């Protein structure tokens, strides 16, 4: 009755319409969750509103969502649009022809050291927005510089993503933040939509320094996102330390400056209007200058301990406890600008057998992986020998070789939630590779890890093997995988089993990750290293990380000799960017690194697994097609049948390498 009366009257004078607040503050609507006040506003008043930060409550609303009471007001006339959110000026983006690109370089920025003055300024609760010009000067279009397009800012539903770290290890899941007010504290209450309790996050390898630091987090910090500005308030009893390039740029400080914020102090750490001005200027300096702004969209916050030039710890990965915020709205804006700009600074050419193929590359960063796959498929015999043959030149803009970009593209191709769900239907819950639980149990019986040992798992996927190890062998497992999607699922599964204290799941690239010397008793990797070309480099790291007498256990694809490879196999390896080596070569690389190696070709076992997996897929055909599609079912059946054929013909098989240091 209240809602009907309110919709008829359509005024702010109507009373609050209250509903109970759910545990996470959201309502389940058509297979997705949304905020209740946002839903009612979208249905009955402002359908164009997309996110919670675009709304503010009226002064006389006693149960506004922002007040975090046990009941929530969903009266659509008790909320108004925040007008400033979508007033950012669009960026006028030029797409430069090649002849103008060479001289469009970023201009140097004078950045005096202002850490002391910055820290003093924040005691006054600075608001950057009050001193930012509301209208940005856009560069005038020039017919000499090509085509110009307006790229507008769009607010993201989850305005930021928060990750928690202890030294260099990311722990727990990533938190997607949709509410305008967030508390991050050190307590152990269940985390909610507007609160992250770091006390719930476990780490069996936590040292005394980290433990002491965590006890001092206390009430932690409060972060707000309103009117296009991110503000932080320190409500703990200890200092916090913030590195924000946007804030540093605004005050003319060095981008790496770390600012100390004492207990009770506040600071504005990111401002959309300021960022818009910087972005508008950067597009005139070329693709690289704009791409470099991605660093500005990440903010690092350390509890209790500082880092940088003024502190004993030089890098953030040396501090005991810290968080990283990624601002999704600005990042999406940058992505749109970069895709519009493309890159016309270099050409790509392949010279082979006196044939010259010249292609002008004009594309955004998301296109690079497709081109790389095409080149490896079409010219794999050339590219595999690129460092050995004279006269072959492959050139791309340097931005396309940024490891983070290639890593993310590889993840998106291989480990989407859809692919994970499909693989779990084939291999069983918790597994993304051949044989699932049965093979995992057989391999672990052979290596027989001892209770209390420390295991590093490389390429853990969604964590089935690692959870089994921790539950049944009493080992402590540090598991890493390049896929954030897989790691998030693994963390949730570990929490379901109540064994989080024995497990650490971390999103990381093993080639860039470092661990201590002689840190692990066992290093375990199943069906992962086919993704890695620098195997010799990796094996050296494994040798360094293992304790004397420690075990390295690898299960991976192997293949026939080079002259026996079929066209089908070459295409399969190229399309998936696999590095599959012959059995003897694989074992030799391990032995050359100093390991004692016992190698077994398990081709019959692999063929049996493939047959069982095909049968499993066919037995769930109706359910699979209903969940995915007939096309997807046919694709996977063909993929598995081709693997079985290659296995039976000796082209692609599976091996187990037991190594000791």
TrEMBL record:
Keyword Cell inner membrane attributed: no
Cellular component terms (Gene Ontology): cytoplasm; heteromeric SMAD protein complex
Keywords for the protein's UniProt record, in alphabetical order: Cytoplasm, Metal-binding, Nucleus, Transcription, Transcription regulation, Zinc
Domain of life: Eukaryota
Primary site of residence: cytoplasm
GO molecular function: DNA-binding transcription factor activity, RNA polymerase II-specific; I-SMAD binding; metal ion binding; RNA polymerase II cis-regulatory region sequence-specific DNA binding
InterPro entries tied to this protein: Dwarfin (IPR013790), MAD_homology1_Dwarfin-type (IPR003619), MAD_homology_MH1 (IPR013019), Methyltranfer_dom (IPR025714), SAM-dependent_MTases_sf (IPR029063), SMAD-like_dom_sf (IPR017855), SMAD_dom_Dwarfin-type (IPR001132), SMAD_FHA_dom_sf (IPR008984)
UniProt keyword Nucleotide-binding present: no
MH1 domain ranges (all copies): 1-88
Record Gene3D superfamilies: 2.60.200.10, SMAD MH1 domain, Vaccinia Virus protein VP39
Residue span(s) of domain MH2: 159-351
Localization in the cell: Cytoplasm; Nucleus
Similarity field: Belongs to the dwarfin/SMAD family.
Cross-referenced PANTHER family: SMAD (PTHR13703)
Protein name stated in the entry: Mothers against decapentaplegic homolog
Organism: Oikopleura dioica
């Amino acid at each position: 009755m209240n809602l009907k009366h309110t919709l008829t009257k359509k005024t702010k004078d109507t009373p609050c319409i209250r509903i109970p607040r759910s545990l996470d503050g959201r309502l389940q609507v058509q297979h997705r969750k949304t905020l209740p006040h946002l839903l009612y506003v979208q249905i009955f008043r402002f359908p164009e509103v997309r996110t919670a930060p675009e709304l503010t409550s009226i002064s006389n609303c006693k149960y506004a969502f922002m007040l975090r009471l046990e009941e929530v007001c969903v009266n659509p006339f008790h909320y108004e649009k925040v007008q400033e959110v979508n007033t950012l000026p669009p960026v006028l983006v030029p797409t430069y022809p090649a002849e103008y690109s060479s001289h469009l370089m970023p201009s140097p920025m004078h950045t005096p050291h202002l850490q002391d003055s910055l820290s003093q300024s924040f005691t006054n609760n600075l608001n950057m927005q009050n001193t930012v010009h509301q209208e940005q000067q856009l560069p005038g279009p020039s017919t000499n510089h090509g085509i110009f397009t307006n790229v507008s800012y769009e607010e993201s539903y989850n305005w930021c993503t928060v990750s928690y770290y202890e030294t260099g290890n990311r722990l727990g899941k990533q938190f997607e933040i949709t509410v305008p007010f967030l508390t991050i504290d050190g307590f152990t209450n269940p985390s909610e939509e507007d609160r992250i309790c770091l006390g719930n996050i476990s780490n069996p390898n936590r040292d005394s320094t980290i433990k002491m630091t965590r006890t001092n987090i206390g009430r932690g910090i409060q972060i707000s996102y309103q009117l296009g500005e991110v503000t932080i308030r320190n409500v703990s009893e200890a200092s916090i330390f913030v590195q924000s390039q946007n804030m540093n740029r605004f005050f003319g400080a060095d981008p790496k400056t770390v600012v100390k914020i004492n207990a009770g102090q506040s600071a504005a750490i990111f401002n959309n209007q300021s960022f818009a001005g910087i972005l508008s200027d950067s597009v005139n300096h070329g693709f690289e200058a704009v791409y470099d702004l991605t660093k500005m969209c990440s903010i690092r916050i350390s509890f209790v301990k500082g880092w940088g030039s003024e502190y004993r710890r030089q890098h953030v990965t040396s501090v005991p406890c810290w968080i990283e915020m990624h601002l999704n709205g600005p990042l999406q804006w940058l992505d749109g600008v970069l895709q519009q700009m493309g890159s016309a600074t270099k050409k790509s050419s392949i010279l082979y057998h006196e044939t010259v193929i010249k292609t002008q590359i004009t594309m955004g960063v998301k296109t690079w992986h497709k081109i790389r796959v095409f080149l490896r498929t079409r010219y794999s015999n050339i590219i595999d020998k690129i460092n050995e043959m004279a006269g072959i030149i492959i050139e791309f803009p340097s931005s396309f070789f940024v490891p983070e970009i290639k890593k993310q593209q590889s993840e998106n191709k291989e480990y989407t939630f859809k692919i994970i769900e499909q693989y779990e239907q084939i291999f069983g819950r918790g597994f993304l590779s051949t044989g699932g639980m049965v093979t995992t149990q057989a391999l672990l019986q052979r290596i027989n890890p001892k209770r209390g040992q420390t295991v590093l798992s490389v390429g853990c996927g969604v964590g089935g093997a690692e959870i089994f190890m921790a539950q049944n062998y009493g080992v402590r497992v540090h598991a890493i995988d390049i896929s954030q999607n897989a790691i998030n699922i693994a963390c949730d599964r570990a929490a379901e089993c109540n064994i989080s204290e024995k497990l650490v799941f971390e999103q990381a690239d093993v080639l860039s990750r470092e661990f201590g010397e002689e840190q692990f008793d066992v290093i375990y990797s199943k069906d992962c290293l086919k993704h890695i070309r620098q195997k010799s480099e990796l094996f050296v790291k494994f040798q360094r990380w293992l304790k004397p007498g420690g075990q390295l256990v690898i299960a991976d694809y192997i293949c026939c000799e080079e002259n026996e490879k079929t066209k089908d196999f070459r295409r399969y390896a190229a399309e998936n960017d696999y590095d599959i080596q012959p059995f003897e070569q694989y074992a030799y690389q391990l032995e050359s690194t100093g390991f004692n190696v016992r190698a077994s070709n398990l081709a019959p076992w692999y063929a049996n697994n493939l047959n069982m997996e095909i049968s499993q897929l066919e037995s769930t055909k109706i359910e699979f097609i209903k969940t995915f599609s007939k096309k997807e079912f046919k694709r996977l059946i063909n993929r598995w049948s081709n693997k079985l054929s290659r296995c039976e013909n000796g082209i692609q098989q599976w091996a187990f390498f037991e190594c000791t240091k």
